[in-house]
């Protein structure tokens, strides 16, 4: 009888863990992008504040605080916030996606899977759907890692950002800034 109760308690606990939502761990997640200026000078930037969750039904949401952009140069961060992202009017980027919950349920600790996820990005008042090639790794019962298999290319014109790029180019006295930006991510989810 004691053994049966232990098995029952373990099953209930296991189902409770499986049924809870996964939260994005900001300290262990990195969303980065590369800008190219003067045709061949590439620089890596990142966002310091991200939030989001993955529900048991497979609904994924990610919120990026655009005022947390970090290029390593304070004046450039301020210019990107005000001239490019226009954070006073558009403070956040949101991503919404649906993930097949059966894919995640089948993952065992230490296992990885490669898949594609369609997600809707809302940025600067525009919504665009993109396909993300991702690798998902189950690190432990309460920790999962989702990373880009390859960068996602974001085009400035898709989100009405061309004028902002031109303002940045003009104020910095640059001959060019690329309108195509590769974005990569490593997102850690915890229960």
TrEMBL record:
Family annotation (SMART domains): YceI
UniProt xrefs under SUPFAM superfamilies: YceI-like
Keyword annotations of the record: Signal
Protein name, UniProt field: YceI family protein
Source taxonomy: Bacteria, Pseudomonadati, Pseudomonadota, Gammaproteobacteria, Alteromonadales
Classification via PANTHER family: PROTEIN YCEI
Domain Lipid/polyisoprenoid-binding YceI-like: 21-190
Pfam family, one: YceI
Any coiled-coil regions, as ranges: none
Signal peptide (UniProt feature, chain positions): 1-19
């Amino acid at each position: 009888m004691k053994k049966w109760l232990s098995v029952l308690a373990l099953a209930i606990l296991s189902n409770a863990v499986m049924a809870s939502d996964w939260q994005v761990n900001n300290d262990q997640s990195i969303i980065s992008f590369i800008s190219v200026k003067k045709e061949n000078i590439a620089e890596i930037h990142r966002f310091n504040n991200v939030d989001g969750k993955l529900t048991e039904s497979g609904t994924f949401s990610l919120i990026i605080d655009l005022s947390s952009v970090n290029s390593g140069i304070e004046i450039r961060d301020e210019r990107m916030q005000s001239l490019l992202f226009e954070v006073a009017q558009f403070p956040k980027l949101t991503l919404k996606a649906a993930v097949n919950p059966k894919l995640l349920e089948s993952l065992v600790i230490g296992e990885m899977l490669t898949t594609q996820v369609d997600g809707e990005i809302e940025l600067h008042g525009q919504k665009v759907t993109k396909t993300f090639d991702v690798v998902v790794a189950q690190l432990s019962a309460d920790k999962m890692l989702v990373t880009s298999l390859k960068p996602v290319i974001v085009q400035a014109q898709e989100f009405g950002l061309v004028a902002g790029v031109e303002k940045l180019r003009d104020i910095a006295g640059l001959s060019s800034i690329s309108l195509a930006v590769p974005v990569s991510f490593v997102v850690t989810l915890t229960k």
